[in-house]
Design brief:
The chain has 19 helices and 10 strands. It is an alpha/beta fold.
Length: about 600
């Protein structure tokens, strides 16, 4: 649809502007509705007063009821207009946030800090989680489960090609459905809380209490309602004393309170928050079920919602139950409706039936919504980055990684792209000066592989990758609280790497930035060489950045080791081109830059 991010930004701004105009018009309409309600209500009161005073009794009574009908109609339009306005405001907020994201302001989105784990095989080194992370750039999830599913997609690599291809197809389909995604994302304002399914799936006490209500024949309840109505009519016409309906009302209210008090209390203690959590899923379930998807993954998730028990009907019934529960907040109304209609009895009975029929399937439904939610985020990411491409996923069980014009997604327009290929069981030693681009390039390799495995587009002109394990060691830190020195932390990380290789056959790509930085130069060189020689006997490919030029000698006489570098130019100043080339770096900048600092002093 769009070829440039600037076009997407203009599109979002245009949508936000049109929505702002429509919101302003609806707010003006709202003021007119309020005025109409006031006029109709005052007119109805005046007509009733005129009727009570004895003048034009029949026309005034008719006018009073007509004005009440007008008031109810205008009020209905007003409520509908308010809800539509709130929805439009949520849509506008979505578009404004997307404009901010295109300006590299992601503060409105969850950064996934709760998923950060320094011991993870690669996520900590590659900035997958945390402020400004890959997760924060992608996440538009409106459900807690969606955020968890997205976090899993970018931190747990799939084991098979088919999973990736199905995600690619689903993400591509949703990326083309811009209005549908905007509608979905506007539900972020519902602030859906976490759903604790353990409360729903266990044999809930409130369900057993409710069953005591439900096991009584409902015909008794209906006869009680009819009997009270009849007593009122008979009292009005003088057949029975007026005390009869009064005593019936007190007795009926007492019985209802007695048999529903305990189950309602238990629902309030453990079930109400869960039900209200599920309430936020209602518009998402409706939107997902009412959409005809084409990709196999989305079709499967949609069928999961439309199974033996239809999720739409279940969640709509849930909404009706919650609406009834909310009405209990009005004490006068609760008393009146319990006397007239035994409302609490039927509320508990409906909850029991809902729990009995649907509780076991709610977890499957929320899981499906969560998966769709994560796919919506990833498809929005694709839509916002037309400069990306979908990678080709290679067959086989070897390390395959070939990219043309690869760059790091965080750098935007200032990124310098590079071509690079990693062959199975080959090792690439990258040298270069400080700030020449080694670490950024290593992260570009890793981050784009994570995107590819998640089914998302990559930041390259072309890319072909296989399905393999990934492990990085780039940001090792000490742990003084637990008495772990920096050097010991490095050793533990390398031990974890070897364990990861054993646990994740058949092959692994390792990305290492300065092996054994915590020891002296000679020890570091010997240890690094020994480690690489050992790893080269395993089904592993590696990309290793180092300042130690001597490590480059491993390529001498060994065809599986290759030297690459990021060279700089020294003149009046240091020139960085951030382009990777075959060979060993010749120029270093530390002495040069330090000399300039000392000279300036």
């Amino acid at each position: 649809m769009f070829k440039e991010k600037s076009e997407i930004k203009d599109f979002y701004k245009g949508r936000a502007a049109r929505l702002a105009a429509e919101i302003a018009a609806r707010k003006t309409r709202n003021r007119l509705f309020v005025a109409g309600e006031l006029v109709a209500f005052v007119a109805a009161v005046a007509a009733f007063v005129a009727w009570a005073s004895g003048g034009l009794r029949a026309p005034m009574l008719l006018l009073a009821f007509a004005m009440l009908a007008v008031y109810a109609l205008v009020r209905r339009f007003d409520i509908s207009n308010i809800r539509k306005t709130e929805h439009l405001e949520a849509l506008r907020a979505y578009y404004i946030k997307e404009v901010e994201a295109l300006d590299d302001n992601f503060s409105s989105f969850d950064d996934g800090s709760c998923y950060a784990d320094p011991s993870h095989p690669f996520s900590f080194d590659l900035d997958i989680f945390g402020a400004g992370s890959l997760f924060q750039r992608i996440c538009r999830c409106v459900t807690p489960g969606g955020r968890l599913a997205l976090a899993s997609s970018v931190s747990v690599l799939p084991k098979d090609k088919n999973t990736i291809l199905m995600r690619q197809e689903a993400i591509s389909e949703l990326a083309a459905m811009e209005e549908w995604r905007a509608e979905w994302n506007s539900n972020a304002t519902s602030n859906i809380p976490t759903v604790d399914m353990s409360k729903m799936e266990r044999p809930a006490q409130e369900s057993r209490d409710a069953a005591s209500c439900g096991q009584r024949p409902p015909v008794i309840a209906y006869l009680a309602i009819i009997g009270f109505m009849a007593s009122v009519v008979l009292a009005v016409i003088g057949v029975v004393p007026s005390s009869v309906p009064s005593m019936w009302a007190v007795a009926q209210l007492s019985v209802v309170i007695a048999i529903t008090n305990r189950p309602l209390r238990r629902i309030s203690q453990s079930g109400e928050s869960l039900l209200r959590s599920l309430r936020g899923y209602i518009p998402l379930v409706e939107q997902a079920c009412e959409t005809s998807f084409e990709s196999p993954l989305l079709l499967s998730l949609s069928r999961q919602l439309r199974g033996e028990d239809d999720a739409i009907e279940a969640f709509r019934e849930l909404r009706r139950i919650l609406d009834g529960y909310d009405r209990r907040g009005n004490l006068l109304g609760m008393v009146l409706f319990n006397i007239l209609f035994l409302s609490d009895y039927f509320l508990v009975r409906r909850y029991r039936r809902w729990h009995s029929r649907y509780a076991a399937r709610v977890g499957l439904w929320t899981d499906a919504i969560s998966e769709i939610d994560s796919l919506v985020s990833m498809s929005t990411f694709r839509f916002d980055h037309p400069e990306t491409v979908m990678p080709v996923i290679a067959d086989g069980d070897t390390v395959v990684y070939s990219a043309r014009e690869l760059w790091h997604p965080f750098l935007g327009a200032k990124a310098v792209s590079n071509d690079f290929t990693i062959d199975h069981r080959n090792y690439y030693i990258i040298t270069g000066a400080n700030m020449a681009g080694k670490s950024t390039f290593l992260r570009a390799i890793g981050v784009n592989y994570v995107l590819a495995m998640a089914g998302m587009p990559v930041f390259a002109k072309e890319m072909t990758v296989g399905v393999f394990n990934l492990f990085t060691s780039m940001r090792t830190t000490d742990d003084l609280q637990h008495g772990v020195s920096y050097f010991n932390a490095e050793l533990l990380r390398l031990k974890q790497l070897l364990q990861s290789i054993d646990d994740n056959p058949p092959c692994t790509l390792v990305i290492l930035d300065e092996i054994l930085k915590g020891t002296n130069s000679l020890d570091k060189l010997n240890g690094s060489r020994m480690f690489l020689e050992a790893v080269s006997k395993l089904p592993v490919s590696g990309v290793i950045a180092t300042h130690d030029l001597e490590l480059s000698r491993m390529a001498d006489g060994n065809s599986r080791f290759h030297n690459y570098c990021f060279e700089i130019e020294l003149g009046e100043s240091v020139t960085y081109n951030y382009k990777i080339t075959p060979g060993i770096a010749k120029n270093q900048n530390a002495t040069f830059l330090l000399a300039r600092i000392l000279k300036s002093e």
